[in-house]
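Q: Structure tokens for this one, please.
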Amino acid sequence: MSSQDVRQATREANDSKAVEWGARTGFAVLGALHLLIAYIAVKVAWGIGGGSKNADSAGALSTISSTTGGALLLWVGVGGFALLALWNITEGAISHGEAFDRLKLVAKGIMYAFFAFTTFRVAALGGSGGGEQQTDDFTQKLMSNPAGQVLVGIVGLVVLGVAGYHVHKGWTKAFLEDLREHPGTWAVHAGRAGYIAKGVALMIVGGFFLVAAWTSDPEDAKGLDGALKALKDMTGGPVILTVVAAGLAGYGIYSFARARYVRL
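A: Here is the predicted structure, written as tokens:
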């Protein structure tokens, strides 16, 4: 089979209804996760129920798993995220667009593959997935390399770049370019707030990685949960964290609109 045949077969698979609806389901599940993260963040901000849950995807997945029908929703999420990963990675490989746009597709695909793996682990094994522990382990592995501090610093800079991209995408409403038609004013407002809020949270995550690189201490690196809890410890932290949580909820709401209107 020639490379052209492979490209054609991949294009036909990506254009199939099964992949399309699976990918759209993935965006819907992503929306539910962000709404739950926002809910958990508000509880953390005001100490409701002890605020014991992780305010990240791991905590959200754990919350879903403990609800009636949660296991089924998790398995649906596994399939949706896996198809999102497959579509983005293969689309990046076979498209004829700009190199940067193709690289973004592949990067998104890797991110959704990580979501699929994390969701699968919670669905199959139970538990919370240990979001912050995963961050510590990942940083520890990087630190064990000869150039470990440099690698951790690079991760921090990459995360800061992604954060800046989110803020820019939200402020300029560039996310509308991902959609096949206008989703409605409510979705635009939700998306704008959501992208900016995610950008702010990721800026804090990136900052923690840079601190970890500077101190050579993997425990100084924090994921989303650590970043949001750091906001709580600031002056006026509960209010600030609540505002960010509202933005994350907006991203969740926008994700539902994206599930319907995204260009695939």
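A few notes: The two ends are 26 Å apart (CA to CA). Residues 185-215 form the longest helix (31 residues).
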